Amino acid sequence: MLDKIGQFIIDAADVLGGYPLFFLLIGGGLYLFITSGFVSVRRLPAALAELRRKPDKGKQDGQISSVQALASVVAATIGLGNIAGVAIALVLGGPGAIFWMWVSALVGMATKYHEGVLAIMYRGKDDTGASQGGPMHIIEQGLGMKWKPLARFFAIAGLFGTMCIMNSNQLTEAFMATFTTPQGLEGSDFLSAAGSVIGLDNVHTFRLLFGCAVATIVAIVILGGIRRIASVATVMVPFMVGLYFVMVLYIIITNIHGVPGVFRSIFTEAFNLRAGFGALVGIAIIGARRAALVNDAGIGTASIMHGASKNDNPVREGLVAMLGPSIDSGLVCTLTAIAILLCGDINVEGVQGLAVAMQAFSKGIPAGDILLMCIVICFAMSSMFSYSFYGTTCASYLFGTRRAKYYSWFFLASLVVFAVVPLEAAVGACDLFYALMAIPTMIAVLALSPKVRKITSEHFKKDKTQQTK
Fold it and tell me: Which of 328, 359, 326 is nearest to 244 (CA)?
């Protein structure tokens, strides 16, 4: 029965996460990129300047600063998708899939700009009067109450799509691959005794106990609310990105002769027609699909976090928001791809993610698998912190803040469950719920994009006038 359910999820994800998701996210993002006047390129200096801007004084709606919102979003998006997701894309689509991840990042920046602007323009409030963002409020206030069923559709999909399905699964896989052996697990008297009680073999018992340990650590942070999540994220994000950059830089320097070949393979394989046009489209879809799980552009989660920002200027928040994909899909995913293509083996059977990356880093750096494990823990934990807030906000919208508190416990329980399930089912569930979240989000963003263009034009005209005075 469980096998049939798992196969149904995988099949449904293949349908929705294929051409529909590709045209919705990449096609829709390309439309937003062009109609916004190439905002992710033209306004990049202004976006970087926003990071240095001091917060406005006075009482404002929201709970965290714009920079904290960006750090929290990046903490969510820089997760195992940047390592395991890139490895999966390389295994399934070859080096050319990375090019399409870059394309997705560029158009994703335009999409996230629109999400950030709309998050402030149509910010809602929960039943306690606290500010809330997200596609459900954007749909209600921007499109009107007759669209409320679509808002509820997003919130329901968000309850499941933000459960860190792949993070929990791959973190457990990485820990087992690094610190355990099959012989050690099978010979453990403790695991045998515990397994006999719950009816599981030693391997699944270990995965279950490890999931419980992860859930306990995550609980310490997420039960403290959005402010604690944001404060932890602003410390973790610079540390983990900096350490990861140093690790990949070491691999590049020690394998410098292979770097030109890596980038050549990315570009040539991205447009390789030897296997036919269908294969080319397939590679593009794989890259876009994995990128959707990495940068979340068009999925709607970013607008939930940016809606909690104290910034009252929609355009400024949009500029900060659009930096997210450039960091996760642009920088971190590229670092992962270079490391794997230089030192790893992507010609493996089946769907493999983190195991491929671990093997590459182990080969490229002394004790590289141990160092990568430390990064994996940081990446996975940071994602879990922010995603819990996304799910809680969806629950608050559906059930009220009082009942939404129970979602946190549901979220923690899911970390334990998905530590045990097979990778294929976890990846399929992730893709399915992300596709379901993307549908209402992109409908709202595309429908309201003229209003974003109008407020953007007014903002920069006013800004230019003030500079000439």
Answer: 328
Q: At residue 210, what is the residue type? A: F
Question: What b/e readout covers 430-457, taking b as 16+ CB neighbours within 10 angstroms?
Answer: bbbbbbbbbbbbbbbbbebbebbbebbe
Other Cβ atoms closer than 10 A to 347: 9
Residue 248 and residue 335 in contact, taking contact as beta carbons nearer than 8 Å: yes
Distance of alpha carbon 109 from alpha carbon 365, whole angstroms: 33
List, in sequence order, every residue forming a beta bridge with 125; answer none if it has no partner.
131
Token look-up 């104290």 returns 310
Predicted confidence (pLDDT) per residue in 397-416, tens digit: 888 888 888 888 888 888 88
Residue with tokens 């609980």: 219
Compute φ and ψ for 83, nearest 5 degrees. -110, -65
Contact 98, 90 (CB under 8 A): yes
Distance of alpha carbon 363 from alpha carbon 339, whole angstroms:
10
DSSP state of 274: T
Is residue 392 within 8 A of residue 375, CB to CB? The reply is: no
Instruction: Classify each residue of 233-257 as buried b or exposed e, where b means 16 or more C-beta atoms within 10 Å of its C-beta.
Output: bbebbeebbeebeebbebbbeebee
Kind and range of the H or E run holding 243: helix 226-254
The strand ranges marked E within 86-243 are 124-125, 131-132
Percentage of the chain beyond pLDDT 90 is 12
* Closest to 429 in 3D by CA, of 442, 414, 439: 414
DSSP 418: T
Is the entire prediction scored with pTM above 0.70? yes
Given a contact cutoff of 8 angstroms between Cβ atoms, the answer to whether 379 and 83 are in contact is yes
The answer to whether 346 and 91 have CB atoms below 8 angstroms apart is: yes
d(CA 103, CA 411): 32
3-class state of residue 363 by DSSP: helix
Angle, in degrees to the nearest 10, between helices 277-295 and 259-270? 110
Helices 165-179 and 354-364, packing angle to 10 deg: 40
Coil/strand/helix, residue 285 = helix
pLDDT per residue as tens digits for the range 104-127: 788 889 999 999 999 999 988 877
Q: Is pLDDT at 426 greater than 70 in this prediction?
A: no
